[in-house]
Design brief:
By secondary structure, the chain is an alpha/beta fold. It has 17 helices and 17 strands.
Length: about 425
């Protein structure tokens, strides 16, 4: 079955200037993928006629479907409609049904329709009007040489309503779509290049209709399998079988599948095992606790935390021995062992974890450079520690250290 290709064009100087963020393209990509349409390019264009017309022509060569957002307002800088009329060689005329809808929009709100507002109903005569149920700018559907152009408002909630209720159903009527299935495999504790090397044999064995993408982020790498075919059931079964075959190569790093981040997976595991957790965090400054408490229902397993940042607080409030700090320093294995053990005892939890390190940019010593972090896990069976050598960026170090603690919990929990 032929793959249906789409290109997304966002129009407006405000996007190029960075005054607004283009969230439309991301949302449309997800929705199109659900119905079997593959997005091959996203382009942002300023409010210039020549650039818009060039973008139309180039998109038509590459894609079956061109989805356009923005530039449909009533002001002089909104030039998408006249550009479409010029590209498809037809005139702009007031559309009677569109005018009635625009008029009703203003009258129902007790406002008078102006001539500028009236021009919202001017549409290229060669398009099919797509009703905007919550705004004044109608959508426009064009067909040419087997290609579809669809222009929609740039206001996200207007575009989403139009796409969901009218555009997607119309696309499904126009094209016979293949099935596209995605599966995300989430890994932690290994960098992208090292992971790629470990799974290279498995990757080379993938069939041609199933592709692999690496999606790295701070602290983890997501693997996305994308398959295309005629049967959703058969394709899903094939992708599931392939993901199972990945376990011998990278199973120790795989913590979950789909959308759930590490803090959700850890939380579900603690809840299922009926285990409780407490935290003593220094260099992470509460960020680890923030991740844990961002999960709804975390009170089932998370009892609380301390942030003993200063030496005196580590000793007086938490209870780390003065001689430990004097002999080894705050950023040391003996100190974080005491921190994890003590917080577990203070909060009477099954598990205690701790962090201490040089987040930066200051505070480094020759033997403890910026990015040196110690983390610990403690339960009644054992205590596990790990030394991290991270970056020179404070924010990155805080986030990476917090992710490393969550992974340490995953690896250290009683089986």
């Amino acid at each position: 079955m032929k793959t249906i290709l789409a290109e997304l064009l966002t129009i407006g100087d405000e996007i190029l200037y960075g005054q607004i963020v283009d969230t439309n393209s991301q949302w449309m990509s997800v929705e199109l993928s659900k119905i079997g349409i593959k997005v091959i390019r996203k382009t942002s264009i300023g409010d210039r006629e020549d650039e818009i017309l060039t973008a139309f022509a180039e998109a038509e060569k590459r894609a079956d479907i061109v989805l356009i957002t923005g530039g449909l307002g009533p002001t002089s800088d909104d030039i998408t409609k006249p550009c479409l009329a010029k590209y498809f060689d037809c005139e702009l005329k007031i559309h009677a049904e569109a005018l009635a809808e625009v008029t009703e929009f203003f009258v129902s709100r007790g406002r008078e329709i102006t001539e500028i507002n009236r021009q919202q109903a001017a549409l290229p005569v060669c398009c099919t009007k797509i009703t905007n149920p919550i705004g004044t700018a109608p959508g426009m559907w064009f067909e040419k040489n087997g290609k579809v152009f669809m222009s929609m408002p740039g206001v996200p909630h207007e575009m989403k309503r139009m796409m969901t209720e009218q555009v997607i159903p119309k696309l499904l009527q126009t094209y016979k779509m293949p099935t596209i299935i995605h599966k995300v495999i989430r890994t932690v504790g290994i960098g992208e290049s090292f992971l790629a090397e470990k799974i290279s044999f498995w990757e080379k064995s993938l069939p041609r209709h199933i592709g692999l993408a690496y999606l790295p982020s701070l602290g983890e790498v997501k693997l996305r399998l994308t398959g295309m075919g005629d049967s959703a059931e058969n394709l899903q079964a094939e992708i599931d079988a392939l993901s199972e075959k990945l376990n011998p190569f990278a199973g120790e790093y795989i913590y979950g599948y789909g959308d759930d981040p590490l803090e959700v997976v850890i939380g579900n595991t603690l809840r299922n095992k009926r285990l409780t957790l407490s935290v003593a965090e220094s260099c992470t400054g509460g960020y680890l606790s923030h991740l844990i408490t961002s999960v709804p229902g975390c009170s089932d397993y998370f009892l609380g935390s301390m942030i003993p940042y200063d030496y005196q607080i580590k000793m007086r409030q938490l209870g780390v021995k003065p001689e430990t700090l004097e002999k080894y320093g705050a950023v040391s294995e003996p100190t974080i062992i005491e921190m994890a053990n003590i917080v577990r005892a203070k909060f009477n939890t099954d598990i205690g974890v701790s962090t201490s390190g040089i987040a930066g940019p200051g505070g480094a010593t020759p033997d403890k450079p910026v990015g040196t972090v110690w983390i610990a896990y403690s339960d009644k069976y054992h205590t596990v520690t790990k030394k991290l050598q991270l970056s020179k960026d404070r924010g990155i170090n805080i986030r990476l250290a917090s992710a490393a603690v969550l992974n340490l919990i995953r690896l250290s929990l009683p089986k």
